[in-house]
Design a protein that fits this description.
- The protein is mainly β.
- The chain has one domain (about 1-60).
- Helices cover about 0% and strands about 40% of the residues.
- It has strands spanning about 1-5, 15-20, 25-30, 35, 40-45, 50-60.
- It has a three-stranded antiparallel sheet, with no helix packed on it. A three-stranded antiparallel sheet has the order 4-5-6, with no helix packed on it.
- A hairpin with a 2-residue loop joins strand 4 (about 35) and strand 5 (about 40-45).
Length: about 80
């Protein structure tokens, strides 16, 4: 699960909560991903048991608006 904090920052603040495969401890991780062979991955060290494991996730492809189409509103105030 990735949470991106809002605000006026010069870089994105990314917080990941990653489950350790050995002890099932939920680790909070703030390091950025590396792009390798179409996937995003990073090495994570468990804070409880000390196991280092590789966490991978598929890269989400974003395709922006075409021909100046407006993006959909986040909240529909007409309802």
């Amino acid at each position: 699960m990735t949470i991106q904090k809002g605000g006026n920052h010069t870089y994105p603040i990314i917080i990941d909560y990653i489950l350790c495969p050995t002890c099932n401890f939920i680790n909070e991780n703030r390091s950025s991903y590396n792009y390798v062979l179409g996937n995003l991955q990073k090495n994570v060290k468990c804070e409880k048991c000390g196991t280092t494991f590789l966490y991978k996730k598929k890269r989400r492809i974003e395709f922006g608006p075409l021909l100046n189409e407006p993006s959909p509103p986040e909240v529909n105030w007409e309802d």
